[in-house]
């Protein structure tokens, strides 16, 4: 990626939307971009990397592997989203693993350059704190769903957190969704069919259309029929 392409990418990242033009130019000149092939591991619990990482293109996932080898997907990140946030404020050691779901490109900014940006424009730090707060809330909701709720309630809660105008556009495969919910792909398929038969939703490929919002809300709260 050329410096001009990097600058264009930086200008399109919401986290940097309030930077002045000269800051954008300087940041772009000092940033680097790495490519991550699909299915390859970018970071792991055994590796570390300090600095700010922002996904420019593609899709990556944060996941843990249990002792029995079972994989639990924690977050899926898309273009424009910062990730590995602990590497910005700590020693960079990750509490989980990071892998690419698609061929992806990642923008990297060194700790020193990030610190300089924050000094010049504290709103960047506030933006980062908002992202971290949202991630913490999502993580707590996931813990609640996985530990306290049955499978239909987990799935309903997931859909409710991502619906827009009654529609959920799945940008991940059903296999990856099953890892987020903490079930097998077969159990996910059965649950979707059961919820569709119960009139809660319609499944059309990657599009989930909610047909009974009230019932799905109740299901997400643990009151599935």
List keywords for this structure.
single chain; 225 residues; alpha+beta; 4-stranded antiparallel sheet; 9 helices; 22% strand
Provide a brief overview of the structure.
This protein is of the alpha+beta class and 225 residues long.
Fold and architecture overview:
- By secondary structure, this protein is an alpha+beta fold.
- It has 9 helices and 11 strands.
- It has helices spanning 3-11, 21-30, 86-89, 111-120, 123-148, 151-162, 174-181, 185-197, 213-220; strands at 32-36, 41-43, 52-57, 60-65, 71-77, 82-83, 97-100, 104-109, 167-169, 201-204, 207-210.
- The strands form 3 sheets. Strands 1-8-3-6 form a 4-stranded antiparallel beta sheet. Strands 2-7-4-5 form a 4-stranded antiparallel beta sheet.
- The chain is elongated and about 55 Å long.
- It starts with a helix and ends in a 5-residue tail after the last helix.
Q: Can you write the helix and strand succession as a string? A: HHEEEEEEHEEHHHEHHEEH
Radius of gyration from the CA trace?
19 Å
Walk across the major sheet and give the strand order. Answer: 1-8-3-6
What would the principal axes of the Cα set say about the shape?
elongated
Write the layout of secondary structure elements.
Layout: H1 3-11, H2 21-30, E1 32-36, E2 41-43, E3 52-57, E4 60-65, E5 71-77, E6 82-83, H3 86-89, E7 97-100, E8 104-109, H4 111-120, H5 123-148, H6 151-162, E9 167-169, H7 174-181, H8 185-197, E10 201-204, E11 207-210, H9 213-220
Antiparallel strand pairs: 1-8, 2-7, 3-6, 3-8, 4-5, 4-7, 9-11, 10-11
Helix pairs in contact: 1-2, 6-9, 7-8
